[in-house]
Every structure is written in C-alpha cells, then in structure tokens.
Amino acid sequence: MRCPCCGRKNENLRRGCACGARAIAAPQTDAMVELPRVGQALFGLAGVIAGLGSFLTPWLIAPALLGAYASFVAYRRARREPARFGGLGFARAGVALSSLALPGLLLFGGYQAHRWQVGRQESAQAASRARMLELSLAIQAYQRERRALPSPQLTELRAAGLAHGPMTDSWGRSLRYRPTGELAAASPSAAPLLTQYSIVSAGADGEFGTADDLVLRDGVFMPAPQASDKEFH
To answer: Is residue 92 part of a domain?
Structure first.
C-alpha cells in the first residue's frame, strides 16, 4: 500500500508514514454498494400530484390512477425490503394523497359525465325541434298553395319540392305527422284552438306517448304530458 501523501510504500498506514500521514479509516474498496431504489415511490407521488389536474383536464385521471398504484406497490416493497427499496416516506405520502383525492376525482368525473350526457340530449332535442319546425313550414307552405293539408305519408310535399331528405329527428327515427280536426289548448284555462296537424318525435327513448316526446301542433310546441297523442300508438 502506498501513502497517498508522499507515495512511499507502507504496510500499515494506521501506524503512520515517514511523512507524517496517518490513516484514520479503513481503505476504500472497489466493491459495488447497492443503494435503495426510490424511483417508483417518487414516480407514484408525482403521478398522484399530476392527477389533481384532472379537476380541470379530465384525461389527467390516468396518471392519478397509475400514481396511486405505483405508490401502493412502492409502499409495500419499502416495508418488506427496506435494504433494496427506499422512499417509504414518498410512498406513504402518495398513498395518503391518492386515498383522499381519488374518491373526489371519481365523483367529479361522474358529475362531468352526467353533464355531458345531459348536454348531448339537449342538443339532440334542439336539433329535432329545428327539423320539426322545418317540416311544419313546408306543410304550411303546401297548405297556402293547395288549400289543403298533405296526407300522412307527406308524398305531396316531396312531389311539390317542399321537402328534401329523410324526415327524421336527430335520433334517426321518423317524425310522425298527422292532419287532425280536433280541439286543443295549451292549458285548460286557455281558449280551445282548432288543431289542423301535429308532428311528433318519440324523443330519446324512442317510444311515442311518453313524457320526453316532442309535440308540435300547428307550428307551436306543446308540453308532451298535456299533448300526448294516443293516436300515434
């Protein structure tokens, strides 16, 4: 062994060297020392923290779930094999944070999904009403020209060039048209009006005579429960 100060050979530096240098610890070796792994614990905690952004950006729920899983696995490994796996504090923080955040994120996600579904149904209803009004305008134009209402099949509208394309609602189901001669009113206290025709969409459930029907009579939309057309069954 050589002295690191003067380079002289010395069998035992603990006794001291001629230059005055003395060893204060055992000499270092080239043996590899394996440090505990903390990467998974840090990754899990980072994923959970990033997942909190899913309150603003829904797709960030994915790193939140992945981070929760990684934190749980890192916590178990650090408890079972502390010599190989470290970061127990990071893993514990990730598990605690995910246990608090994930229920809220899932509830918020369910609320957002419900809002999206409601918005989609409202858009479909608005599009269906627009198609029904378009058909109603075509019927009124035919009535002004011919002094009569078209038949339930509406073939006269197509022949006159007043209707184009399929006469369906936004759910892809056919609109039901019927010329009538009954009396109807929007409310019992209102004066009865002679209804000449009605157009009905079965709504989202696809069944006529239910509360979600869209009913148009003489160009005016009527509440479905008060204007349920039993004749369309």
So the answer is: no
